[in-house]
């Protein structure tokens, strides 16, 4: 009911801003720009002190602004991609600018919607849990909608995160388990790849060949499981 009071985001012209310019923000911005989903000139972020991060974003056309407030003022959709321990202070600082015509998104790990909505002063908020393979366009992301986020808002965010992988929708009460599975899961897969490669080396393979075979084998197996929809043991 509350969502109907808000202006719809114009999907053909909206501007996207990132509060926080880390690797995950870079991956999402780059995926959106390079896939053609959102032109880079419509994406902005703010970088205060790290020249390398500025270079990273500017290398694919993202606008780098002086302050977080400039990013919010310019954006229709604002993604909070800061570390969990600072997200509260950042949202509270920007609260006067977080008007209800802006769609707010958080990818801050472990930060619940009820807190985000309280700090922002409204509930047009969507929480997303992405994972590190977003850097290569293969993220496994999950989202849930805040109290005033509309279905159209959800579709917009799904398309945005869909540009860097796959996205599902789930109840927030499942998010701790989701973080454990898809958030931490890549680290376990890296260990499996390393173990397979080590086995190959122990059997006499050159390290480069063993690592290539192990990585491609895991990629192929995952692709078969995903595309066939069958239980892994039956593929």
Keywords, separated by commas or semicolons:
alpha/beta; eight-stranded mixed β-sheet; 9 helices; 46% helix; globular
Describe the protein.
With 235 residues, the chain is of the alpha/beta class. It is 46% helix and 15% strand. It is built from nine helices and eight strands. An eight-stranded mixed sheet has the order 3-2-1-4-5-6-7-8, with helices on both faces. Strand 2, helix 2 and strand 3 form a beta-alpha-beta unit. The longest helix has 22 residues.
Envelope shape: globular
Poorly predicted sequence stretches spanning 5 or more consecutive residues? none
Instruction: Order the strands across the largest sheet as they lie in space.
Output: 3-2-1-4-5-6-7-8
Question: Beta fraction of the residues?
Answer: 15-25%
SS-derived structural category: alpha/beta
If you average the pLDDT, what whole number results?
93
Span of the ends, CA to CA: 45 Å
The profile of the biggest β sheet is: 8 strands, mixed
How many helices? The count is 9
Share of helical residues: 40-55%
Number of strands: 8
* Strand and helix order: EHEHEHEHEHEEHEHHH
Question: What is the radius of gyration computed over CA atoms, rounded to a whole number of angstroms?
Answer: 19 Å
């Amino acid at each position: 009911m509350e969502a109907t009071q808000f202006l719809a985001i114009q999907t053909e012209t909206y501007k996207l801003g990132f509060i926080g310019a880390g690797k995950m923000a870079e991956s999402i911005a780059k995926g959106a720009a390079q896939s053609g989903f959102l032109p880079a000139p419509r994406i902005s972020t703010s970088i205060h002190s790290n020249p390398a991060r500025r270079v990273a974003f500017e290398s694919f056309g993202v606008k780098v602004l002086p302050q977080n407030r400039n990013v919010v003022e310019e954006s229709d959709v604002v993604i909070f991609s800061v570390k969990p321990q600072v997200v509260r202070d950042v949202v509270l600082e920007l609260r006067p600018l977080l008007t209800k015509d802006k769609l707010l998104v958080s990818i801050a790990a472990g930060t619940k919607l009820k807190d985000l909505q309280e700090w922002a002063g409204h509930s047009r908020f969507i929480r997303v849990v992405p994972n590190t393979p977003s850097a290569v366009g293969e993220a496994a992301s999950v989202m849930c909608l805040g109290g005033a986020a509309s279905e159209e808002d959800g579709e917009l965010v799904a398309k945005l995160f869909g540009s860097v992988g796959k996205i599902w929708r789930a109840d927030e009460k499942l998010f701790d388990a989701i973080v454990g599975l898809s958030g931490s899961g890549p680290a376990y897969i890296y260990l499996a790849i390393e173990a397979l490669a080590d086995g190959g080396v122990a059997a006499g393979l050159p390290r480069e060949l063993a690592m290539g075979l192990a990585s491609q084998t895991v990629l192929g197996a995952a692709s078969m499981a995903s595309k066939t929809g069958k239980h892994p043991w039956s593929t």
